[in-house]
TrEMBL record:
Catalytic residues (positions): K207 (proton acceptor)
Modified residues (N6-(pyridoxal phosphate)lysine): K207
Annotated TM spans: none
Keywords: Aminotransferase, Pyridoxal phosphate, Transferase
One Gene Ontology MF term: pyridoxal phosphate binding
Similarity-based family: Belongs to the DegT/DnrJ/EryC1 family.
Keyword Thylakoid: no
UniProt-listed GO biological process terms: polysaccharide biosynthetic process
Protein name: LegC family aminotransferase
Species classification: Bacteria, Pseudomonadati, Pseudomonadota, Gammaproteobacteria, Lysobacterales
Length: 380
């Protein structure tokens, strides 16, 4: 089935970028205009594309998704030695950003269906460990403040974000959505990343669209947006020629060259999502009646089908599939090793992570690129 979708004579990659739109002319524009770096019209234009598409009021472009998350956590009020609740089933970038701000991750279990943070697990953990004081949540056993929660929409499958936000609101916990994988995924009529106080996106080379490297902070809060821009642009006080900076900021602004790619990619996004949904439909049909579960979004939500995923019946089935496909030049991948099993995070609190551990042994990603045979549909 995979060789029917993708050219069988070549190695089938998990996810390859597609540059079939205006990428070349927009890049040439940047070079011709001399604006290649972090000041330029394309950065602003790309931010406007993302704001318009997601429905977020503000979008601030960054050098990558990890940098976006680093700054978003600070803006959400996370301070050194605070605790932040997140998933053990996520890509390392989520937890790296937590380390940069000196926060202690607390790993709460995911739902088996969405592969994302589970509201029941979150409620259970909070009722066992947290108490409210002055409108803020504190961990009874460690004495630390629980300042934020970072749910992640795994592979672009929307998690139960409204429930997560409601629980966090009731506990004075800020929600920062890691929407790095979910551009084009919707919870009802709202784009993923527009539920929490802030959210971050990634445009790394393997994501649904790419700027080479890049990220974005989105929010509806004007004050936070202004601070995001300030912190990511070396905290420079606007002035025609003087260099004055009023705090320790970051050089995290996305360069114009990368944004030029992003503008072209945004023009392709709707068509790419349409084609990716067709690829997903082929997988769904293929796995029907096989005993292998094809991961689907919940009713009422829409996935971007960034990476298609299946859940095998056992770890040995998983290993056999990984072995068989990779030895035949078809790239398949197991899901990430749980964060709670990595040396830097193995001492962190967690809730037992029953579902996370079960999924860790069984989930496999399948090749999910837009097939070359469909490229003609991307040309205007
Ligand atoms: C890709 C990704 C990020 C950000 O990655 P960058 O490579 O820094 O852009 C963050 N979280 C998750 C879950 C991701 O998949």
């Amino acid at each position: 089935m995979v060789s029917g979708l993708y050219a069988p004579e070549r190695k089938v990659l998990l996810h390859r970028p597609v540059f079939e739109g205006n990428e070349r002319p927009y890049l040439v524009d940047c070079i011709d205009s001399n604006f290649v770096s972090s000041v330029g019209a394309k950065v602003v234009e790309f931010e406007q594309h993302i704001a318009a598409y997601t429905g977020a009021k503000f979008a601030i472009a960054t050098v990558n998704g990890t940098a976006a998350l680093h700054v978003a956590l600070q803006l959400a009020g996370v301070q050194r030695d605070d605790e932040v609740i997140t998933q053990a089933l996520t890509f390392i970038a989520t937890c790296n950003a937590l380390s940069y701000v000196g926060a202690h991750p607390v790993f709460v279990d995911v739902d088996l269906d969405t592969l994302g943070l589970g509201p029941e697990a979150l409620s259970r953990w909070l009722s066992e460990h947290a108490e409210l004081r002055d409108g803020q949540a504190w961990n009874r056993s460690t004495g630390r403040r629980i300042s934020a929660c970072v749910p992640m929409h795994t592979f672009g499958v929307p998690l139960r974000i409204e429930e997560i936000c409601a629980i966090c609101d009731a506990h004075g916990i800020a929600v920062v959505e890691d929407a790095a994988e979910s551009l084009g995924s919707w919870g009802g009529d709202r784009h993923t990343g527009t539920f929490g106080r802030l959210a971050t996106l990634s445009f790394n080379g393997n994501k649904v669209i790419t700027t080479g490297g890049g990220g974005m902070i989105i929010t509806d809060d004007e004050a936070l947006a202004r601070r995001a821009k300030h912190l990511t642009t070396t905290a420079k006080v606007p002035h025609p020629y003087e260099f004055v900076h009023d705090e320790a900021g970051y050089n995290y602004r996305m360069p114009n060259l990368n944004a030029a790619l992003g503008c072209a990619q945004m023009e392709l996004l709707p068509k790419m999502l349409e084609i990716k949904a067709e690829v997903a439909a082929s997988y769904r049909e293929f796995f029907t009646g096989t005993g292998v579960r094809f991961v689907e979004p919940l009713p009422g939500t829409t996935a971007n089908w960034w990476l298609n995923a299946i859940v095998l019946e056992s770890e040995s089935d998983r290993d056999a599939l990984l072995e068989y496909t990779n030895s035949r030049d078809v790239m398949t991948r197991p899901i990430w090793r749980l964060m709670s099993r990595l040396p830097m995070f193995e001492h962190c609190q967690h809730d037992g992570l029953k579902n996370s551990r079960w999924l860790e042994a069984r989930v496999v990603n399948l090749p999910s690129s837009v097939p070359e045979s469909e490229f003609h549909r991307l040309k205007q």
